[in-house]
Write a structure and sequence with these properties.
The complex is a heterodimer of chains A (519) and B (580). With 519 residues, chain A is an all-alpha fold. Chain A has 28 helices and no strands. Chain A is 80% helix and 0% strand. The longest helix of chain A has 36 residues. Chain B has 580 residues and is an all-beta fold. In chain B, 2% of the residues lie in helices and 33% in strands. Chain B has 3 helices and 38 strands. In chain B, the strands form 9 sheets. In chain B, strands 6, 7, 8, 9, 10, 11, 14 and 15 form an 8-stranded antiparallel β-sheet that branches. Chain B has a 5-stranded antiparallel β-sheet with strand order 33-32-35-36-38, with no helix packed on it. In chain B, a hairpin with a 5-residue loop joins strand 35 and strand 36. Chain B starts with 41 loop residues before the first strand and ends in a 5-residue tail after the last strand. Classes of the chains: A mainly alpha (519), B mainly beta (580).
Chain lengths: 519, 580
């Protein structure tokens, strides 16, 4: 990140620093100042050796010159001589504590060296000296983001963007922070603004794609990922994200092609290879997926997720011994990974090794106490073993964590029934049935929306509205049902109801907007 | 079935989200049951072509399907229509969306058993040359005239054929009051005498209230399987409601579905149906394998009504509480504890399900403990308990084939056409998959659907007649060189329904008791041989056979010879002390 920021800001900071210190100077000093101005120009022209000579000469003439130390610091920084740069910036600050630019550049160098806390402190000092100092605000925000202090980053980057609204990169980082703090609407807005100022900023397209994907606009996301790759085909993250989005849209073949392209360029791109494996699994190409996971674990024998996925793929091919081995390896590599003992537990349970399975589910729960699936499976094993009391406790815990688990309610009902708790079991079965019906109704609503759209194609507006109403009745939480009903009602002239449905749709899926055309 | 693990790499640090598969998607396990190294004493041979079972079974598009209607295939019924003691075979036929010119439409086929290992197609002669979207078939002598009648379910309108006893049938659907008001999708069916009045009533499962005008098609993009656009449903489509028709005794039936509580089942999308006496109270119950829903166990309340106790008895869901895509059902006492256990075939990516009947009104899911959890790749349909080597332990036979022909596009999917799966009952509660050891024709891939288990050549070994989609039928003839003994009992009701559907039989040989029943329906949309077959192992004598007839009469026969067929006529045995 610091490398990205450095090229943007150093030259500008240099000139500002120069301008800030022009003032009360003696005649002798003015010669030194003239030298420094010349040195600054040489730095800007990347003539670093000449600039260094001038800075050293200026310091020989006037060792107390903060500007000369600062100039030398910039030269060192450009040469990636970070320790030397930091020393010169500190020397400048010692001589001119109010030199905000020196604090900013020192912060930058410290950040580049991984000393983020010290960097942040320097940026804050620069801002305290000059609150409207864009570079310091920007660098502070970006550093806070980098150190995962997303909320603070958002504040600093917001100030930076207010200082320079057209600064695309600052706005980009602001949007990233907004997305990470869950404010998708703000992130999408700021990324669009950033791209207006810098249409070629490929990473902003990638980020916009991610934000759109998270907001449910899969097609929009795919478009942005594609734009990012058009600008910079080497952007592995855009390629990986495009592959994911295509997979989610059901375009498995193109997803596989896209992810293969990323891997061809970056064979060690772990995420892309894992995703490729998942895409192949989705396509039923278990052998292909297994090959990818094997390659991944060969390249990176410490990759727990790779072994975990390898275990899954092998198990689905009934390669049980190898699957168990892979899952045990995943467990060993990542002792915090709860999915590995959980899945291994399921394998063992399904093959009649219930006692071992129970221990593994408990292992998974030690790793993640609120792991609903592990509680559920542990309860299932307890019930199978006749330990109804513990089974009931595990099913209740599953439901506490995930109240929508119809199977947990069903199993609870069965366990309570075995305990002769007629009332409790009846209530559990009833809740299971209610949840099951809700799921079935949601699926039926999807079909009803589709049927309505088919009716629209045949210009049968009344029938379409009837089907959309069915969909809303079946699944009041279906944004598409409300949205399509709104559009159809608008066509029929029922504008008040249409608006109401549109509002319902937008509440459920903010990216859904009615076309501007009027009926 | 699974949640996709996504691994975004933008905006580092990367957060990896791990794949967590739904349990139903990760069914599989260790082959912890070690196969016996000894060679198998039995084998199958596919004698269909040589036997003359050579007519195509047409069902939907061969390479791609638009609606689920094109995927479900048809059933097979074993019926001794000419009452000669040799089982004939009736194969239901389907259609295509495009349809056929009137004279060329595929029809159902009745093959008469010539008693020499071959069959004669007597469809037209018998008056059974009906076409349409045929589904299942079941057999029952509903008028107790000594000649088996035939019911055929359809997407559209079901048909009841009365056996005229002269080698021909008459379509009596209308006069029997079995016409539908509109299109229904009848699937599995079974005759049963649920009120013990001595007359066979009729149960018909209904799959989906499918409206081809509104059902989404693959082009909608709403329905995908492993990324491939496929026919939609059944989730999202309105489920059908099962039907029970009471036999009035005058050749007509009355729809008592509502009154009898049949329509109040917890689940829907019914496919395979079998009768059974789950609670061993002498009143016939029903099990329905539901697709994508909890399956139904209709408990006979002995007052003309049923209650679906599938969920509360633990016979409806998988062991981890999930609904499964049930297809076929087999009833049998695999553990020889005197209770009728339930085996159900399910969708690919899931195991079949073995519910052990604990005898106290509950099912205990023993799928994984029994070793059946080793197979998740196959999509099962017709299934039956069949004692392959007559050792007295019922084994399992499964017919498989994927729903979607489009899976042929997938690289390593098990395929549209799939091999059979055969599990050998090891006699200790566990099973061993012996499919590969059996070799062909078990390992030959077909798009199998219905299967009827029937000893067509009366050799004491139960054979399998299989309906394949867009293919000719198979007839797997079982040969066994074990030398184990057997007995086959044909029950004839006099006061009870003549087919004795609902009768419970216990044979005791060498001190070992075996139980079975005469059942209506079974497997997938099929009707099995009514005759009760027992493998007896090395037992050369049968001490006793007890029968509890559907009307409650209990009587016994002593000293029946082995390795032969016996006709047990109600009232011809000697009285026994009532048991249970």
């Amino acid at each position: 990140m610091f490398r990205r920021l450095s090229s943007i800001a150093v030259a500008a900071a240099l000139l500002v620093a120069g301008a800030a210190t022009v003032g009360a100077q003696t005649q002798a000093a003015s010669d030194v100042d003239a030298m420094i101005v010349r040195g600054e120009r040489l730095v800007a022209a990347n003539r670093l050796d000449e600039a260094a000579s001038i800075a050293n000469e200026a310091l020989a003439r006037r060792p107390e010159s903060a500007r000369a130390h600062y100039l030398l610091g910039v030269v060192h920084e450009r040469r990636q001589q970070l320790d030397a740069a930091a020393a010169e910036y500190r020397a400048a600050i010692a001589r001119a504590p109010q030199l905000a630019e020196a604090h900013d550049r020192l912060g930058f160098v410290l950040g580049t060296q991984g000393r983020s806390d010290e960097a942040i402190a320097e940026f804050e000092r620069a801002i305290a000296i000059r609150p409207a100092f864009f570079d310091a605000q920007y660098h502070l925000g970006a550093t806070l983001w980098w150190t995962k202090q997303v909320d603070r980053a958002r504040v600093a980057l917001g100030r930076a963007v207010r200082l320079r609204p057209a600064h695309a990169e600052a706005r980009y980082y602001l949007a990233v922070a907004e997305r990470q703090s869950g404010d998708l609407a703000a992130a999408i807005r700021d990324l669009r603004v950033a791209l207006r100022y810098a249409p070629g900023l490929a990473i902003a397209h990638t980020q916009l794609g991610a934000a759109l994907q998270a907001s449910g606009d899969l097609d929009g996301a795919i478009g942005e990922f594609r734009r990012a790759l058009d600008i910079d085909p080497t952007l592995s993250d855009a390629g990986n994200s495009l592959g994911l989005a295509l997979m989610q849209r059901g375009d498995a073949d193109e997803a596989i092609q896209t992810l293969r392209a990323v891997i061809a360029r970056y064979p060690d791109h772990t995420a892309a290879r894992l995703n490729l494996g998942t895409a192949l699994m989705q396509k039923g190409d278990l052998a292909g997926a297994t090959a990818e996971y094997r390659e991944l674990t060969r390249r990176d024998p410490t990759n727990a997720e790779g072994f975990y996925d390898l275990g899954l793929a092998l198990k689905q091919q009934d390669e049980f011994d190898e699957a168990e081995g892979a899952l045990r390896t995943a467990m060993r590599i990542d002792t915090a990974l709860p999915e590995a003992p959980y899945t291994l537990g399921v394998v063992l349970w399904q093959t009649g090794r219930a006692d071992e399975a129970a221990a593994l589910f408990e292992n998974a729960l030690a790793r993640r106490p609120r792991y609903a699936d592990a509680h559920y499976m542990l309860g299932t094993v307890f019930r199978q073993q006749g330990d109804l009391e513990r089974a009931v406790a595990e099913f209740r815990e599953t439901i506490r964590i995930n109240p929508a688990s119809s199977e947990a309610h069903t199993s609870l009902g069965q366990a309570l029934q075995a305990q002769h708790d007629g009332e409790g079991s009846a209530a559990a079965f009833a809740e299971a049935e209610r949840l099951r019906k809700r799921k079935a109704d949601a699926q039926a609503a999807v079909f009803a929306v589709n049927a309505g759209l088919e009716r629209l194609k045949r210009d049968d507006l009344a029938a379409a509205i009837a089907r959309f109403r069915d969909a809303v009745r079946l699944d009041p939480d279906s944004a598409q049902a409300h949205f399509q009903l709104a559009l159809a009602l608008r066509r029929s002239g029922a504008l008040v109801e249409s608006r109401r449905e549109l509002q319902a749709a937008e509440r459920l899926a903010p990216h859904l907007k009615a076309p501007d055309s009027q009926p | 079935m699974s949640r996709v693990g996504i691994r975004p790499t933008i905006a580092s640090p990367t957060l990896a989200v791990f794949v967590v598969l739904a349990l139903t998607a990760i069914r599989s396990g260790f082959a912890f049951v070690h196969e016996a190294p000894a060679a198998l004493s039995f084998s199958f041979s596919n004698v269909a072509r040589a036997a003359g079972l050579d007519r195509m079974i047409v069902y939907g598009g061969a390479d791609a399907n638009k609606y689920l209607l094109e995927t479900t295939g048809t059933g097979v019924a074993a019926i001794d229509y000419d009452h000669d003691g040799w089982l004939d075979l009736f194969f239901v036929n389907g259609s295509t969306l495009e349809g056929f010119p009137a004279a060329t439409a595929p029809t159902n086929h009745l093959y008469r058993n010539r008693r020499d290992g071959t069959f004669e197609d007597v469809t037209a002669k018998a008056g059974l040359a009906a076409s349409g979207w045929g589904q299942g078939a079941c057999v029952g002598d509903y008028d107790n005239d000594g000649h088996d009648d035939l019911f055929v379910s359809y997407f559209g309108h079901n048909r009841l054929y009365h056996n005229r006893a002269d080698g021909t049938f008459e379509d009596v659907t209308r006069s029997a009051g079995l016409t539908n008001a509109g299109t229904r999708w009848g699937t599995g069916c079974a005759f049963l005498d649920y009120d013990r009045d001595g007359r066979l009533d009729l149960f018909v499962a209904n799959y989906i209230d499918l409206d081809l005008a509104t059902a989404p098609t693959p082009e909608s993009g709403l329905c995908r399987y492993k990324g491939i656009k496929v026919a939609c449903g059944p989730p999202g489509l309105t489920g059908g409601r099962n039907a029970l028709y009471h036999n009035r005794g005058n050749g007509a039936f009355e729809d008592v579905s509502e009154r009898a509580g049949i329509t109040r089942a917890k689940g829907t999308y019914g496919l395979g149906v079998s009768t059974l006496d789950f609670d061993n109270d002498g009143w016939t119950d029903l099990y329905v394998a539901n697709d994508s829903n909890p399956s139904a166990l209709y408990r006979n309340n002995r007052d003309g009504t049923f209650t679906d106790v599938g969920v509360i008895s633990g016979c409806a869901y998988s062991q981890d509480g999930k609904p499964q895509a049930g297809m076929g059902v087999a009833i049998g006492d695999y553990d020889r504890n005197g209770t009728m256990d339930v085996f159900k075939t399910n969708f690919a990516g899931d195991t079949s399900t073995l519910y052990a009947n604990t005898g106290d009104g509950l099912c205990e899911d023993r799928t994984f403990a029994s070793g059946i959890g080793v197979n998740t790749r196959w999509l099962g349909w017709g299934t039956g308990w069949i004692d392959l080597d007559n050792d007295g332990w019922p084994d399992l036979f499964l017919t498989n084939g994927h729903v979607y022909p489009e899976v042929a596009q997938l690289k390593t999917e098990a395929g549209y056409k799939q091999r059979k799966v055969v599990y050998l009952n090891l006699g200790n509660g566990r099973f061993s998959d012996i499919s590969e050891r059996l070799g062909e024709p078990v390992t030959t891939a077909k798009a199998g659907r219905g299967a009827a288990f029937v000893d067509f050549d009366n050799d004491g070994h139960v054979d399998v007649a299989i309906s394949n989609v867009n293919d000719t039928p198979d007839l797997f003839r079982l040969q066994d060189r074990s030398g184990h003994h057997w007995v086959t009992l044909a029950l004839v009701g006099t006061k009870s329904n003549r087919n004795a559907i609902g009768a419970r039989v216990r044979s005791v040989a060498a001190g070992i008791a075996h139980w079975d029943e005469v059942r209506g329906g079974g497997s997938y949309l099929s009707q099995n041989d009514f005759r009760v077959h027992f493998g007896l192992g090395d037992a050369a004598t049968i001490e006793r056979v007890d029968v509890r007839w559907p009307n409650g009469l209990e009587e016994s026969w002593d000293g029946l010879t082995v390795d032969t067929f016996h006709v047990l006529k109600e009232g011809s045995g000697h009285a026994q002390r009532p048991s249970r």
